[in-house]
Amino acid sequence: MGLEVSTGAPEPQLHLIQANGVRLACHEWRPELRGRLPTLVLVHATGFHGRVWQQTVNRLPDRHILALDQRGHGQSEAAPFDTWETFGRDLAGVAAALGLQGAQGVGHSMGAHALVQAAAFEPGRFARLLLVDPVLRAPTEYLGPPVPPGTLHPAAGRKSHFESAQAMQQRFAQRSPYALFDAQVLHDYCEHGLRPAPSGAGYELCCAPAYEGSIYPMARQNAGVFASIRSLDIPVWVVRARAQDPSILPWDPLGSPTWPGLAAEFRHGRDLHFKDNTHFLPMEDPGLMARLMGEASSA
After folding, report:
1. Of 22, 30, 189, 191, whose CB is crowded by the most CB atoms within 10 A?
2. Is the separation of the CB atoms in 130 and 237 below 8 Å?
3. How confident is the model at residue 9 (pLDDT cuts 50, 70, 90)?
4. What is the three-class DSSP state of 211?
5. Is the pTM of this model over 0.85?
6. What CATH number does residue 269 fall under?
């Protein structure tokens, strides 16, 4: 039997928090439950936003939940950054501003990378972490030369303007990776991932393609994340999706970016391999995501 889905879940409260020199948006579900169980803090992947977790939240009706819009995403300020460490500093600042203690952090992809550093920068704010296919490679892969300034990923060229959220959803429904998403998750991504275009005609992506495209090339520039990994004295579950397919060139975007040896680098790490899921597991299967959060909470 699957987890119950709440169809009448209230809209989250929006908080705008000044942290690490940037204005960040944080969505809060069920504030009346604050303090009853450890708060769940959800951190999204590059190019998405906090409301993409809505269908997972609906399956956890008895939890107090916060979801951050990382800088440059959703309703947060698109401030510049120098390294992925910046995203960790942002999250650490939000955790401190909210006075979190003993929270359960759940991060996906780049959001998981940020969460590891936030937990290290603010000890005690997080009591356990669930990292879903984190962008964390083997230590040797962080030894390469710096990425030249201005380097952009091909995502910088993606379509940014849409007539409506419905038009965006219709365009994406048959395209990879969005065709793999739970239909309601795709709806939430589109519904909350647009803002009115400055021209007054239609809508544009909240996470500008050029901003998204500037994030990916810096994935292997933050070697300091391993100091954070080794400093954590809390349980950490590492969820890995299927391996990347080397026959897909230049790279397989649906395969896992996570080093298989990562869990062993944590003092209390546990490795879980979901070989039938892709890198977009939280969007593919919010029911599985909610179950993992529940299991991690009670472990």
Report:
1. 189
2. yes
3. low
4. helix
5. yes
6. 3.40.50.1820
Cα 110–28–6 angle (5° rounding)? 100
**What is the span of the domain harbouring residue 88?**
14-140+216-298
Confidence of residue 299 (pLDDT cuts 50, 70, 90): confident
Task: Spell out a b/e string for 48-81, using b for 16 or more CB atoms within 10 Å of the CB, else e.
Answer: bbbbbbbbbbbbbbebbbbbbbbbbbbbbeeeeb
- Would 283 be classed as within a structural domain? yes
Residue 152 has which token pair? Answer: 């952009």
Note the pLDDT tens digit of each residue in 157-177.
999 999 999 999 999 999 999
Residue 5 has pLDDT above 70, yes or no: no
| Tens digit of each residue's pLDDT (9 = 90 or more) over 15-30 | 999 999 999 999 999 9
Residue 88 lies in a domain: yes
| Pairwise CA distance, residues 238 & 247, whole Å | 26
Tell me how many domains the chain contains: 1
**CB burial class (10 A; 0-12, 13-18, 19+) of residue 247?**
exposed
Whole-angstrom distance, CA of residue 117 vs CA of residue 198? 35
Residue 2 lies in a domain: no
Strand order across the beta sheet in which 235-240 lies: 13-19, 22-29, 65-69, 40-43, 103-108, 126-132, 235-240, 268-273
Q: Is residue 187 part of a domain?
A: no
Q: Is 27 helix (H, G, I), strand (E, B) or coil?
A: strand
Cα 27 from Cα 151, distance rounded (Å): 32
Joined tokens for residue 135? 């962008």
